[in-house]
Structure prediction request, 613 residues.
Amino acid sequence: MNSLNKILKQFAYPYKKEFFLGVFFNILYSLFSIVSVLSIMPVLDMLLGGSIKQEETLNHVKEQASDGFFSELKYKLYLLLQQNIIETGPKKFLAYLCCAVIVLFLLRNVFRYLAQYFIVLLRSGVSKDLRISMYSKVLALPVSYFTDRKKGDIMVLLSGDIGEVEGNILNAILELWRTPFSIIFTLVALLTISPSLTLIALLVLPFMVWIISSIGKSLKKDARRGLTESGNVLSIIDETLNGAKVIKIFNAEESMKNRFLKSVFHLRKLSISMMKKYELASPSSEFLGSVAIIFITWYGGVLILEERGLDLASFLVYIALFFQLLEPAKTLSTSLTNLHKGTASTDRLVETLESTIQIYEPENPIVLTELKEGIQFQNIEFKYQEGHSVLQDVTLTIPKGKTVAVVGQSGSGKTTLANLLARFYDVDEGKILIDGHNLKDLNLKSYRKLLGMVTQESILFNDTIANNIKLSNPNASMDEVINAAKVANALEFIEQFPKGFDTSIGEGGGKLSGGQKQRIAIARAILKNPPIMILDEATSALDTQSERLVQEALDNLMSNRTSLVIAHRLSTIVNADMILVMEKGRVMEQGTHSELLEKNGIYKRLIDMQNFS
Prediction:
């Protein structure tokens, strides 16, 4: 329950006004539910029996007035009613009493509406704030966090877990505040009518509490496993949609279907287990309530037959009130079950909200607004997993305005260098210096304003071409967007679309070719106009025609900028100011294109393998 307390303290506390108003009107609703039922008893007990019956009833109540406070209160109420009947007449007073009952029922439902209104304000507010906080946390977490998590699991957190808090947990908490009052009001009314009969009814309650508590504890474990499996299902769906072409070309439909079926059947098994336990709570409490009703009927019948302080009218109202007691008791048991089940969601939410952000900034970070000197990698060591080094003793200098290219076979650590420069990860040993300042000492937001990046896989969003380009500079004018597209060799194909820059490109830019997507990504980087550019194999996945157009755009992009270029196609980096050749995480060779050719080493071998001269 510790996670639940944290969620409530952070997200429900700002809505304490709505919470207490909801509870207040719920209490009034509970109170008037009892009063509206009790108001019928005088009608049954005094008016419908005629004047002789009224006198007998009043005398009978008077005899019991000495039994206690409630009996005396009942006598005074009946005496007042008797006086009003005499003054106004039975028929007229009956009309007044019926109108009063209507008003009581009206007030009861007005209070119910007001309670639900404030509860909706509370639930929607908490849900909104929790979603915003979770999404902000997801944006703030480093790239390394997501390498160990499934996208489906994150999606379940933002939808299912938050929905559990909004739909079940908050309702359960509100019911736990309301139903005790409803139960107390009803018990008071029952005690007023017959204390001995009420004691019989109370014998059932401990059994109800024990059953519900046992079921609730068992549910929490199943609920957490169910949420995890829901994340697996969503992850498989996401992989299927993203990899549809690969699945079809390799006839992997059956394999993917088997994965999906295995996960779905496991989820079904968990759902059945949860359902059996969850649905057991309500019938159990209802059965115990029915047992109590039977005992009450038997004992109440004995009291009536032996004329021991209970008449038929009072007994009928008592039964009606007891049935009204069963509903809040049933609601209370369901709320306790939901609360236990829901804590699995709060545990997962708090776990994510309290996840450590592994990219730290000092208390007073250095703010850089421009690049004056250049970039240095000094004796860099880095590993993604303990015991497996990716980079070892890497030293590299990129002077301002120069282009340094990094080449090597897959797995040599090229992309890792780009990730470290973007500070997606922090180095384990050594330093990255920007104008002589340690990268870890810089304000990360201001530093990344200096960076532009184009990767092998163009990351585009399901929006218009203009909005995808403006992602790097939301305040840019349309003229600036058009100019960026022109420099990126993208203007020609954009203008061929009927809606031009307002064309929606679909999920991940699915309506564009590879070369078109890449040029949109380059236009985005150009619009930002950063002093530092990171190009991570930006042309490796393109055909020759697209590569030529994209390379021209990249040349325009890198003009007068400090650039780190990760290259697979060596034809694209022959004009670089410095080329580094990496192998197994180490820098094996460095120099210009012509210098490296003369060495007749690894670089020359890579050139020969690509049939480049």
